[in-house]
Amino acid sequence: MTASTGKTAFKHEALYTALRTEIGATLRPHDPLPSERELVARFGVSRATVRQAVGRLEEEGLVYRSQGAGTFVADPSTISKSLALTSFSEDMRSRRLTPDSRLLDLTLVPAGVTVARDLSLSPGAEVAHVRRLRLADGLPMCVEEVWLPTERIGGLDAGTVAGSLYDALAGRGVQPHHADQVISATVVDADQAALLGVAPYSPALRVDRITYTEAGVAVERAESMYRADRYDFRITVTRRTP
Amino acid sequence: MTASTGKTAFKHEALYTALRTEIGATLRPHDPLPSERELVARFGVSRATVRQAVGRLEEEGLVYRSQGAGTFVADPSTISKSLALTSFSEDMRSRRLTPDSRLLDLTLVPAGVTVARDLSLSPGAEVAHVRRLRLADGLPMCVEEVWLPTERIGGLDAGTVAGSLYDALAGRGVQPHHADQVISATVVDADQAALLGVAPYSPALRVDRITYTEAGVAVERAESMYRADRYDFRITVTRRTP
DNA sequence: TAGTGGTCTAGACCACCCT
DNA sequence: GGGTGGTCTAGACCACTAT
């Protein structure tokens, strides 16, 4: 069933993927996972490898562990957004929603002042402009506008931007590494309201993001407007008291 | 030097604390940490234990690892401030604004259903309810509502809640350690609009927070409504290689 | 080539939960 | 008491980086 894409070289990744699939398919919230020792036997790996895979599931909020009792599937309503850089598609899947996309615009344009500055481009350099309506389980979730410097990532076509843009970038050898995000509140305009299926001036969570490679080269600038009634940001913060 | 507080039973915690202290004291940004194998020898533990301790430092953004090269102290300027649990006063000062507070309400009330659940209290247990208008450089920034379980933190008076609530808690021996935050977008009602000096139905960034001590005891539940035109959340997120 | 972090094994003991 | 997750050991090989 889990037809490997050929990229999963590590055992803990293969196990992680297998467990993730099973959680999404057959297990219900609060169902117990097989015990770690049973996974050792079933997958033919060591317990350390099992714990690495389950640990990642726990980090991502898909399961919770209870010492002495077992590991259980988390309640989706309590899934927290982690601080990992994720594409919309990945984010939705981690919330156990099916992502989809409707392309609204895909054009090559000269970079404006703001885009050029954020991407460290010469003003007027060519950028690909992508505007998409993003859906979760078929319902509008956000309107997203993205600018990509073509000189750094190559050209784009409609097929490429149908799914995860991060996958498309990775396919061109461009690996997103980190991003600066600004989260703010706003209200939608008439156009956005129509796309999202809400009344004009409804509240929206706005996320502005600039994505960089490991070398610090900006490869994406994105503005996303999320429906406030369907999306929030959950983070756990710890106190620094040195 | 590392005068144990008596609670650190695990080797990886002791090592984590030792490394954390060294990072804060003698090491500079981008300085290399001792290699994992050297830490094995120096602390007399296995490499798995070393990796657990260093892994926690990496999770918290204090160090970064580079395969084949080493582990290095992270640059503090790239540590996102929003990942730290801060009080309003601390947050404002870090933005170089002067915080102030206007007390709107301070009463002892029985905990409602939601508050009791979030703070793990018996329904009807006594909580202190604090409502404050928070100012930055003299201008309204947010309306904040806080519930505190009096049985865990003692009584409160107007003088105590004039400034930083976290300072007040620390003065009673209650140390906030971490918090779960939910960030969402909404619009203000007429009352909040009047206090914040904006039009009704203006957008606002809403932050719901439950604060815990190190032992996991909930000591504060807070709801804050920030003026959207004066406040945003900035975080740097990094990619987990999928 | 030598050293580093990343992965992995096959054990072990402990603290805790459930019945 | 039996099973679970949490911690820990003492090795090993691999992929990568620096020189």
UniProtKB/TrEMBL annotation, chains A, B:
<keyword id="KW-0238">DNA-binding</keyword>
<keyword id="KW-0804">Transcription</keyword>
<feature type="domain" description="HTH gntR-type">
    <location>
        <begin position="9"/>
        <end position="76"/>
    </location>
</feature>
<dbReference type="Pfam" id="PF07702">
    <property type="entry name" value="UTRA"/>
</dbReference>
<dbReference type="InterPro" id="IPR011663">
    <property type="entry name" value="UTRA"/>
</dbReference>
<dbReference type="GO" id="GO:0045892">
    <property type="term" value="P:negative regulation of DNA-templated transcription"/>
</dbReference>
<dbReference type="InterPro" id="IPR000524">
    <property type="entry name" value="Tscrpt_reg_HTH_GntR"/>
</dbReference>
<dbReference type="Pfam" id="PF00392">
    <property type="entry name" value="GntR"/>
</dbReference>
<dbReference type="InterPro" id="IPR036388">
    <property type="entry name" value="WH-like_DNA-bd_sf"/>
</dbReference>
<dbReference type="InterPro" id="IPR036390">
    <property type="entry name" value="WH_DNA-bd_sf"/>
</dbReference>
<dbReference type="GO" id="GO:0003700">
    <property type="term" value="F:DNA-binding transcription factor activity"/>
</dbReference>
<dbReference type="InterPro" id="IPR028978">
    <property type="entry name" value="Chorismate_lyase_/UTRA_dom_sf"/>
</dbReference>
<dbReference type="GO" id="GO:0003677">
    <property type="term" value="F:DNA binding"/>
</dbReference>
<protein>
    <submittedName>
        <fullName>GntR family transcriptional regulator</fullName>
    </submittedName>
</protein>
<keyword id="KW-0805">Transcription regulation</keyword>
<dbReference type="InterPro" id="IPR050679">
    <property type="entry name" value="Bact_HTH_transcr_reg"/>
</dbReference>
